[in-house]
Amino acid sequence: MDGAYIALRGYKFQFDRSILEIFNNPTELVEIEQLQDYGFDDYLVQVKYHNTDYTPAQQKQKIINPLVQLFDQFLKNKTKKFILFIYLKGIPPSKKTLSVAELDAILGKTRKFSANERASFVNSFTLIYAEDFESQYKEVIQKIKVSYSKTTEEAKIYYSVISSHLLEIVTKHPPSNSSKRITSKVEIDKIISNGRKLIFKSAFVEMVAKEKQLKHLNKLFFKTSLNNEPLERIFIIETQPLADIKLLKEIVLILKTKWSKNKTKTIPDSDRFVPYVFFQGLQENNLVKLKADLQKDGYVIKDGYDFMNASFNLNSLKERPTFLNKLFFKFINKPHDLESLLSNLDRTGEIYQFFIGSPAPISFNQKHIEIEIEEIQDIKNII
Predict the structure, then answer these.
(1) Contact (Cβ atoms closer than 8 angstroms) between residue 305 and residue 313
(2) pLDDT tens digits along 209-262
(3) 180, 276, 199, 184: which is closest to 235 by C-alpha?
(4) Which listed site, 173, 206, 244, 253, has its alpha carbon 20 to 30 Å from 75?
(5) Percent helix / strand / coil, the chain, rounded to 5
(6) Alpha carbon distance 343, 345 (integer Å)
(7) How far is CA 332 from each of CA 251, 280, 303, 320, 357, rounded to the nearest angstrom?
(8) Closest residue by Cα to residue 377 from 202, 248, 209, 266
């Protein structure tokens, strides 16, 4: 567990450095080449994080490997500048260029580079000893806070969204497809402003107390008002097969209260809306029990299946809420039913997807917010 925690902090340290460069160079395209590399203008930067008490000899070894990698890249492309950005516990922050003698002292017996190559490389290489994880993290949060005029707690939520965006870039596109591994401050601004595709992963917000985290997720993404637009909102909630029916019922009724508008007779039908709910992974028998429990309380159940053994009827599922039909929510039973609905929406749609671990892939080009949760109980405090 300690090893995994150290690895995660190193991974986040690398992403934090990338975020700072994106915010410090708002007009530039930044290429995320590997999880530990990024580039902009004519620079390629490799980031390393070592929060262990090493001897001087061990510290030297931690520098040699990435330095040699950068040297090899230099020999392939001498037009770029190369930076090794490294945190080594106990070494104060500094920035320096190397003389050939200093480079030789670091390389030691690693002498595969010629004298001319080493003389040329030092003119294109900078070694930066970085600040610690917490100092850099605070700098990132401050940048986000100022850029978007948010509180510190809200900035930490945005930090997760931005980090998740970078993670998606490197996991969706192989290194060979470098043209797709590019982002910019302008692109991040668009993601934040229009909410078209937001991913929140809780691993990026370890410094926020859970209660505050859930509260600010609600404020940023789920704050409701009397004037909500009549959109098609789909709530996808990953569950265990035998999830607690009572808890799922509570979630459905919270969604009904906050995200439906079909109670008052005087509302025009065009302004009425109700949420779609898909409990992904829930065992079919438990879904039936949940619906039966809600029906017993007097709620109308609509899921696109009108009688026993009927085929899925998309038009039935899409029936508009009216004062007479008393619809307050609709169920989606299967992934295929979800796909059919998303491909045939009559109005603007929004997906709110709650997942544990990693989200199921969904093809949707409208607003789609993905939020990682530790347990289903958390959803009650978010929505």
Answers:
(1) yes
(2) 667 778 778 877 787 765 688 899 999 999 999 999 999 999 999 999 999 999
(3) 276
(4) 173
(5) 45, 20, 35
(6) 6
(7) 15, 9, 6, 15, 22
(8) 248
In the block, which residue shows the tokens 């009425």?
272
Tokens coding 103: 């480079």
In three-state secondary structure terms, 256 is helix
Query: CA-CA distances (angstroms) from residue 173 to 50, 58, 189, 330?
Result: 27, 34, 21, 36
Q: How does DSSP classify residue 235?
A: E
Quote the DSSP letter at residue 270: G
- β-pairing verdict for 94-96 and 349-355: unpaired
Say which DSSP state 319 is in. Answer: P
Closest CA to 144 of 204, 99, 91, 196: 204
Tens digit of pLDDT for each residue in 306-357? 998 899 999 999 999 999 999 999 999 999 999 999 999 999 999 999 998 8
Q: What is the pTM of this model?
A: 0.72
| Cβ-count burial 262-285 (b if 16+ within 10 Å, e if not) | beeeebeeeebbbbbbbbbebeee
DSSP 8-state class, residue 372: E
Task: Give residues with Cβ within 8 angstroms of 183, minimum separation 6.
Answer: 22, 29, 30, 32, 165, 166, 169
Q: Which residues have C-beta within 8 Å of that of residue 87, sequence separation ≥ 6?
A: 13, 48, 49, 50, 51, 129, 130, 131, 132, 133
